[in-house]
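User: Teach me something about this protein's shape.
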Amino acid sequence: MRVSMILVSAALLALGCSGSSTLDTGPGGDVPIAFDGTVPPDWDVPEGQDAYIPIDADSGQLPEDGLDSGAPDTAGVDIPSGSDTTGADTQSDKGDVGSVGGCEGCGTGILKGLTCAPDGQTAIPDVRVWIETLDCDGNTVVLEAKSDATGTYQLENVPCGLQTVNMEKGSFTGQFAVFVEQGMTTVASSNDRCFAANAAKIAVISGDWDDIEWFLDKLKLKYDWYDGIGEDDWSTEAEGFLNDSKELNKYDVIFINCGSSPANIMDSAVAANLKAFVAKGGSLYLSDYAFVYFEDTWPQYVDFPADPYVVNGWQTANGTIVDPALVAYLGGLGNEQIDLKYDLGPLVKAESIAPETMLHVEAYFPQQFKTTLPVMMSFKPEGIDGGRVVFTTFHNNEQANQMVKLAKIINYLVFLL
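Assistant: First, the predicted structure itself:
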């Protein structure tokens, strides 16, 4: 007997059934349903839950033994909106690599998807995606893949049925449920399968001359905001936050904009707190004058001159993207170049980086140094289990000339943290 699956709301089942293909709703009229036959009176489906009902695809008749006939019981499972859980092979997000569908007996299928930001549009590469489930023999299996430069992934030989999919990259984690069809390709492509807005706990310290939160807003990431400007080159709110290790460690990622207050706030206590924060897995993103937060904390990763505030404003540096993974994310050949504006000066000069520091972007300064310098870099100072520190010498909000490309670069780095 060939069986397919119908998802019926318990709210409708509770209304009662007639002997035809409708459920009588009373004065409001009949509501059509997708099968013929009657629901046995001994089927106890709690109100507010959903039940999978197996039917004979040829005769359209319901089984006599209800939910015990092999249909997956989804009681207590939160199925994301937009999920395809009916087992039909006519949905727009289905492939057609098989003709079975549903989940009769024990079989497997393929799960494809796109890892993306909360905005539902921005693809995120190199995300670990995995399912921990049971095979046909009841043994625990872990199926794992990483999304490619376009954010696409594919998991093979996934046991049919409702599966929990886990996602992780840097500080960002996510999870969703999807029904995997037997002998078919199920495509998890709706926005419910992207990272959530609160996939990582984020704090932003504002600054005088940069605006990293503009990019976070575009990605629809949630964050807590701390005043980093204050008065007389001193922000008591930023100072209090960075000196409170308990408050600091509530977060996974902290973004610190370029501003005048870091030089006055930074001291040995802040350095110790930041070191502990990164050691436990927290990550930092800093621009320009915020470099003081890591210059003495981890001095071996980036070299600065004795007077680092020497980059003239009102010039354009000819940037080159040298991180191969970032180049691939931008689309490959032809996307390695970016002109970087240095509008307001002086800005900070990074002279060189250590071998263990990852260089993302370097730039040639034709109007001043006549040499190539690192301008966007990152490092992991507390080992493989620690967090990442990202630093840019330029201001993100000054790159209106190439904002589309810069936005993609920032998106890439945000999910690297």
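Now, about its shape. Residues 197 and 221 are 4 Å apart (CA to CA). The longest strand covers residues 161-169. If you'd like, I can walk through any region in more detail.
User: That's plenty for now, thanks!
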